[in-house]
Amino acid sequence: MSRFSTRTDFPRAPNALTEAHAARQARGLPLLDLTESNPTRVGLPAPDVDLLSLPGGLGYAPEPLGLASARHAVAESWLARGARVSAEHILLSASTSEAYGWLLKLLCEPEDTVLVPAPCYPLVDVLARLEGVQTRAYRLPLAHGFGLDAGAVESACDARTRAVVVVNPGNPTGHFLHEGELAALAEVCARRGLALICDEVFSEFPWDDEPDRVPTVAGRALPCLTFALGGLSKSVGLPGLKVGWTHVGGPESLRDEALARLEWVSDAYLSVNTPAQHAVPALLARAPRFQQALRERVLANRARLLAARPRGAAWDVVRAHGGWSAVLRVPTEPGEEATCLALLAAGVRVQPGYFYDFEGGAYLVLSLLAPPERFSAALQVLVDGLGRMFPAG
Asked: pLDDT below 50 — which residues of the chain?
């Protein structure tokens, strides 16, 4: 009989929310979906670039770190966030998920540990398991607006910890890393010999001019090995093109050794699509139009959400400063799943906080990407449903 790795033995039984959603679809009942996170399905502007017509698009010239033209374009795009970086320190991958896998290969032996934030989108746990690596959570305290506490990070370390993952801004919390948080975290990483992996896929979508915000760790003179991750999926709203990037920084000797090793890893895969690489300069040149349209959409929908909350309501919108999501804090009874099931029965779909490892209360997560008319219709059902479940005191 064939044997399978325990690394791929993930639970496959559908949860109650998945079953209820499938049942509603099977009955042909209408549903207003506030979990949509795919920017290609919400009517935002897409760049008019024909990938196959670009010079060299159908050729094949494998470059382990990625085509120089694409890496230079990525380096130029960082200038908008105030970071001056070298294309020589940038590595392309087919996605940020693949970049995480490569970094776990680079940094960890089997059974080593990587620290991940909680609450957060549960991606790194899956990728780490596939690499035979363990994850340990460090909590983001609500008292700090789900900001980073370097003491909590250090407390989560053990003898086999090799890296700390930071998501900037948090997904779905929308909290940007602050200068003091970064300085304290970098000191912990340098003292303990840890690498800092900063997932910055949402960093180009701030909502305000919050002071002391860290737009990127790329180009910073930090005392630890650092990796800043991004990609076309969010920057241009084209997840199907499968191009991500990683900037490698930190002390020169560590940076250069990491790049040399990553070049070997990427050369073994050569996974980045050639036409998409040739298109990166043109796509990033058009990125500001998409990013502005998305920010306007998200801000307008968040304003609608805040305005729709009745005075004295038992639920509230958690403060945030960026990203594509909103987090609602709701009463703890009857629980997140029961609340989501009741809203689904009423015709609107949201996500429970436990999907993202929230603690210390009950939370709902919803996407702010929907077109205005669809969002407004869903918002009416949401507010009415929450009003019935949680009458104002």
From this structure: none
The token duo for 127 is 């990728």
Number of separate domains in the chain? 2
Q: How far apart are CA 103 and CA 100, in angstroms?
A: 5
Q: List, for residues 102-127, the tens digit of each pLDDT value.
A: 999 999 999 999 999 999 999 999 99
Q: Which of 264, 285, 306 is the last residue of a domain?
A: 285
**Euclidean distance between CA atoms 56 and 61, whole angstroms:** 9
> How buried is residue 336: exposed, middle or buried, by Cβ count under 10 Å (0-12/13-18/19+)?
buried
Residue 61 pLDDT? 75
φ and ψ of 322, to 5 deg: 180, 175
Q: Are both 217 and 312 inside the same structural domain?
A: no
- Distance between CA atoms of residues 389 and 339, nearest Å: 8
The tokens 């349209």 sit on which residue?
293
User: What is d(CA 328, CA 365) in angstroms, rounded to the nearest whole number?
Assistant: 6
Query: Domain end: 285, 311, 338, which one?
Result: 285
As given in the structure block, the two tokens for residue 131 are 């690499």
Residue 173 DSSP symbol? T
> What is d(CA 355, CA 225) in angstroms, rounded to the nearest whole number?
30
Q: Which two tokens stand for residue 35?
A: 């979990």
Q: Kindly report, residue by residue over 274-314, the tens digit of the pLDDT.
A: 889 999 999 999 999 999 999 999 999 999 999 999 999 99
So what's the pLDDT on residue 145? Answer: 83
Question: Does 195 lie in the same domain as 163?
Answer: yes
CATH number at residue 357: 3.90.1150.10
State pTM to two decimals: 0.96
Look up the domain containing 206 and give its range. 62-285
Residue 184 counted as domain residue? yes
Alpha carbon distance 96, 102 (integer Å)? 10
What is the rounded CA–CA span in Å between residue 317 and residue 363? Answer: 10
**Between 96-107 and 252-269, two packed helices, what is the crossing angle to 10 degrees?**
120
CA nearest to 149, candidates 137, 140, 136, 161: 140
Residue 352 CA, chain-centre distance (Å), reads 17
Query: Per the domain annotation, does 380 fall within a domain?
Result: yes
Reduced to 3 states (helix: H, G, I; strand: E, B; else coil), residue 115 is strand
371 with 238, same domain: the answer is no
Report the pLDDT value the prediction gives residue 49, as an integer from 0 to 100: 75
